[in-house]
Amino acid sequence: MALTKRAIPRKYLIHFANEHLDFRIAELKSIFKTFNYEINIPDKDVRDPFMILELPSLDCVKSVASRAILIRSVYELWAHGTTFEDLNNALRQLPKDFVEPHTSRLETFKFQVTSFNKSLSNKQKRDRIECLPSDVLDFQGKVDLKNAKHIYHILEYYGPFGHDPTDQPVDVYFAKWITDGQRDKINEFHLQKRHFIANTSMDAGLSMIMANIGGVKKDMLVFDPFVGSGSLLVAAAIHEAYVLGQDLDYLLLHAKARPSRCNEKKRAQDESIRSNLRQYGMEKYYIDALVADSSRPGLWREITLFDAIITDPPYGIREGAKKVGLHDKDSLINGEIKPGAQHFPQRLDYHLSDIFKDLLNFSAKYLHKNGRLVYWFPVNIQTYSPDNIPTHPCLQLVHNCEQKLNTRLSRRLITMEKFRDFTEDTKEAVIQVDHFETSTFRDMYFNDNNLQKERQNDGQNKLSSDLNKLNVT
Ligand SMILES: C[S@@+](CC[C@H](N)C(=O)[O-])C[C@H]1O[C@@H](n2cnc3c(N)ncnc32)[C@H](O)[C@@H]1O
Asked: Structural domains in the chain?
């Protein structure tokens, strides 16, 4: 059956990057929402790197690609089949007036063959190109391998990565390249090249994915209540949002903690979150980082303040998470400090479940309506259930994506959206089933048999390097 004229240009092929598979759809949906597009996303095996989408315009394609970290490229889809024969038949159905504008002598072009989960020899690639129906794809322009105006791709999918490739492709596509996603930004903002980093700095790619899922855009105010070295602020400022953070650790914020790079003895004097933003020409978006305790939100005025809260709370692995307490209970009247009483900040254990409940209570109060809270929640894969995720009457769960840390542990990126105003009567956050009731995440981490064995074999250095690899506190 011939495709209708209008349907063809509206079909696009998304080629996802082969990482963070569980985050692809959350990122894609969130970017569409940021640009106010309502797009139907088909249900698909998340391991399949190709997805066909009907998109309303080229502008929509370009907007999405201008943000997406998990998109490799976007193509205009010309034909799709499950065999080469199918593909060629579909190409033969293309209306002439769809192909014709590309066949003029002035239109330089080249072909490219890309296969997923199977390597193809140059000869196989040439054969693929030679088998295309030349009567339909009657391109009269010159082949230009360096600077072609149109790049036509044959894309072949041989099943999910990590599985034996199928003999014949599962899907074959013929498509014209339109644009690439933002993979280059991962290198541009890589932590290795960043002026100020800490032991738990969030990697650049994940930080940018978080900003996308958080719906960050120009002129927003974005807050990170566990800011550390400010990686999430950098990611938000890329989109011209104003950024503000807070952290309990004075030494960290003032770059007086031990250097995090193994070949460095001393930190440079000007290391700071501000200097990171300056490094990328984004200093004007930096508001400040406060030394403050996230368990005590009393310093904020009781009005909604933030468009997005994006954060990575401490998981308490390196040392149990802490909050500030009062030195002496006698110095309190009705929970407030007695006038004139001396206050020596005290470090109390901060239970992980309380960290999350406080974070939700804070977000429910201080996010503007429709603002998003995006945060990491670490779990033991075997015992995790969705009931472990805290809930709040003002916040609805939008996405819950998993990043595996090893075979036993993972962390889940939780995205919630404020859909109801906070009032005096609003109830507090609750956790239906407390994931950390019987053991802390630190216990879960150290109960990992493999890690324990490695620790015994290799000593404490190995532990440090494991933690560094995972970038977790
Ligand atoms: C996982 S790290 C955040 C890393 C950060 N995203 C970055 O890229 O550097 C968690 C941070 O929470 C801070 N923290 C721990 N307890 C806190 C509290 N009660 N209030 C505020 N910050 C706290 C720690 O000092 C640490 O910097």
From this structure: 11-182 (3.30.2130.30), 188-470 (3.40.50.150)
* Six-digit token string for 447: 């109960």
**Residue range 227-243: mean pLDDT, rounded:** 98
What's the CA gap between 222 and 351, in Å, rounded? 25
Distance in angstroms (rounded) separating the CA atoms of residues 188 and 284: 19
**Residue length, the chain?**
473
Alpha helix segments (H runs only) across 285-428: 352-366
Condensed to tens digits (0 to 9), the pLDDT of residues 135-150 reads: 999 999 999 999 999 9
Evaluate if residue 452 carries a pLDDT over 60: no
Q: 158 with 118: CB under 8 angstroms?
A: yes
Closest approach atom of ligand 1 to CA 324: 19
Cα 387 to Cα 268, 376, 431, 432, distances in angstroms? 45, 16, 7, 6
The rounded distance, in Å, linking the Cα atoms of 430 and 360 is 9
Using DSSP, state whether 462 is helix, strand or coil.
helix
Ligand 1 lined by 232 (C-beta under 6 Å)? yes
**Nearest of 184, 293, 277, 181 to residue 222 by alpha carbon:** 277
Q: Which of 195, 197, 200 to mutate to test the pocket of ligand 1 (most atoms within 8 A of CB)?
A: 200
Element (H, E) at 466: helix 449-470
Please give the backbone phi and psi of residue 180, each rounded to the nearest 5 degrees, phi first: -105, 160
